[in-house]
Model the fold of this input.
Amino acid sequence: MAADLQGRPLEPKAARKLLLRQLRKARACLGARPGDEQIHSARKHIKKARALLRMLEPSLGRRTWRRGEAALRAAARPLSAVRDAKIMTDTFEQLLKSRARVLLKGRRRLAASLARHHRETRAAVVRERGGLAAACRSLRRATRTLDAPLNGGRRALLRSPGKLYRAGRRELLRNQCEPAVDTLHAWRKCSKYLYHQLEVLATHCPPETSRLARAFHALSDDLGEDHDLALLRAHVALHPESLPDPEEREDLVRLIEEARLERQQRVFRSAAQLYARRPRDFRAVLENGCRRAPVPAP
Done:
């Protein structure tokens, strides 16, 4: 995504142009009969667009930002349902590979149940009025909404990365005390949005910004794997018939929690270094780099 702004001044208009490009790509992915890969790609484009929209909030104004954010959130909702259903199948396979010593007699039954849930979820999203057609309408609505006057300059774009860094730091402290599925997921969203924003800013800031983008990307991936494992556990609890043997369900829950603990320990180790910088110092790095970006020609 950063390559799209290579050599251009970092201004709100350039950021909005990139945002609208992400929306066009998302709509293209949701053309006739999209498969899992197309739906997943559309969802990623929407996530990048939402990260850019956060950067543009001071330039667009609170009211326009809220309308655009609501439209993008509505567009992503049905796509997330398909992604969550698909990722549980992949997560279950990876979990058993990483714990090869454990044998679950009902593994095929559970795998079949997860695959069926994925097919039914995707079919419902494609078929229902609130599915893909509604997502496309929401993307068009967001495009119209964001065609609005912009205010402010480069510094306005740096408020959101600073806020996300500060929020992520708070989530780190909260989860160190008492990690929970909801708070870990909230932390993941902070790190994911910040990664996408740093990816854009890396073109205009010192090399350290690219390193930070990669680090926050890795952090969001680890937190995402934890969330995927939590989704799998919740599905098995909600559908005990998919793994009828109570002892096997207990064994699976134990495997899931072991894997989650490993990821959380890795997350906390890396995050302690990643969030060691004070929020004002973090923003100063971005501001100094932005200040050295080329000035637009008159």
User: Anything to note?
Assistant: The chain has eleven helices and no strands. The chain has one domain: 2-291. The domain at 2-291 is CATH 1.40.20.10 (CHAD domain).
